[in-house]
Amino acid sequence: DDWNDHFYQAIEDWNEAGALELATVLDNEGPPCEKHTRGMVKTCNGDYGRTDWTGLNELLFENGWIVSSVAMMNENYLRNARDVERQYVMCHELGHAWGLPHRDEIVGNRDLGTCLDYTITPQNNMKPDEIDFENLSQMYGEMTIGRGRRLKMTASAGGADMFVSSYANTTHLAHGTKRRTTTRSTREGRSDRVLLHKSDSHEIWEEFLGNGRRLVTKVLLSTRRD
Q1: Close Cβ partners of 226 (under 8 Å, ≥ 6 residues apart)
Q2: Is CB count within 10 Å lower at the N or C end of the chain?
Q3: What 3-state DSSP class applies to 86?
């Protein structure tokens, strides 16, 4: 699968943070990314149709704590994309999987040199930077010998979906400001959501599931929409 190199490179780059210890395992039989698995992060590539997004990340919260995540790369837009764009999207969505926010949401601004920046020049923003690493350390704490937080990453080969499984302490994030909208769903079958934020480059949605559970979806919009 031509996504595997991008996946493993992104894991290597995020491993440099020192706040997470990431290990990779191949998995062709895991459940699809449409379903969350508690205590796990899944990363998948596939043709999800003309959704307007190149990359998508979902975070499932229970009482304000992340309990699972899903990251998806949409080959409908990325199948013929340059390697630098694929690497940027992979790094970007995995950054959200750890709970990190966007760094700059204005595409025309000077590149920050991080994949959590919005950009039209992905070759300048394919990796996390030191500020991303500092933010991870604040969220998860520094690793200590024998007491590190280990994330088990799994990926599939042969053109099938790619999966990432994560075993880590959950992360507490602040709640956002909500407003109701009736715009289209970013995922099939989910049409009634709360739109937290929208710009030309991204959308952030929230769905309340009951019993203290909520789903936050961050969508990286394609520049090739029609």
Answers
A1: none
A2: C
A3: helix
